[in-house]
Design a protein that fits this description.
Blueprint lengths: L2 H10 L13 H14 L12 E5 L8 H14 L3 E2 L8 E21 L3 E4 L3 E4 L3 E21 L5 E4 L3 E12 L3 E6 L16
Parallel strand pairs: 1-2, 1-3
Antiparallel strand pairs: 3-6, 4-5, 6-7, 6-8, 8-9
């Protein structure tokens, strides 16, 4: 093999593929957004119908703030509120606040967990997990509130009370081979996905 052939072999013998992943899993994002979407189901925004409304966001502090505010604004608009972009154009000011939007994760294991064992001159190594049964639970919850007052007088006009929503994703593993899941988020379970027209 000549020099050119050796160079080509060296060039083709090594290949690395870099995969960039987001900081947050899609499961986390879908659980939080699903809880948010469900928080406005059945909410009473009817008193806002026909009113020029400015949504005051400065008191709203929440995880995934952009999505949460968008969901609330859309619900008001569907109820007939006339959303305005500046405060002085509004008849009513609608303040929105978040009491909580988050995710709880908890695991349970029947078996032997992974252990870190120090090895002289080699450093620590992790032993594999030996699970007879393992359950991984992720539960999200959202709680928001909305109230409206007249811009000119400051008089109270409407309050929704707590707006709550929740979602869950539970994953189970038996003997390290059998896996199943339970969730109320269709995007996380193919069985819950509705077939699109034409499929």
């Amino acid at each position: 093999m000549g020099m050119a052939g050796g160079w080509m072999l060296g060039m083709t013998g090594c290949h690395n593929t870099r995969v960039t992943e987001p900081q947050r899993s899609v499961a986390e994002q879908l659980l939080l957004s699903s809880a948010t979407d469900r928080s406005v189901v059945g909410a009473n925004f009817e008193p806002l119908r026909g009113r020029k409304v400015f949504v005051q966001e400065k008191y709203f502090d929440s995880y995934d703030k952009g999505h949460a505010l968008g969901v609330l604004r859309e619900a008001m608009s569907k109820a007939g509120a006339r959303l305005v972009a500046v405060e002085w154009e509004a008849e009513w000011i609608v303040e929105v606040r978040s009491s909580g939007l988050g995710l709880d994760n908890r695991d349970s294991l029947v078996g032997i967990p992974s252990l870190t064992i120090p090895i002289p001159l080699a450093g620590p190594i992790a032993t594999p997990e030996l699970a007879l049964y393992k359950a991984m639970h992720s539960d999200s919850a959202a709680k928001f509130a909305v109230f409206a007052y007249e811009r000119a007088s400051g008089e109270h006009r409407h309050a929704t009370g707590p707006l709550t929503g929740a979602a869950h994703f539970h994953h189970y593993r038996l003997l390290g081979l059998i896996n199943w899941r339970r969730t109320d988020v269709p995007e996380l379970d193919p069985k819950l996905r509705k077939e699109k027209p034409g499929n």
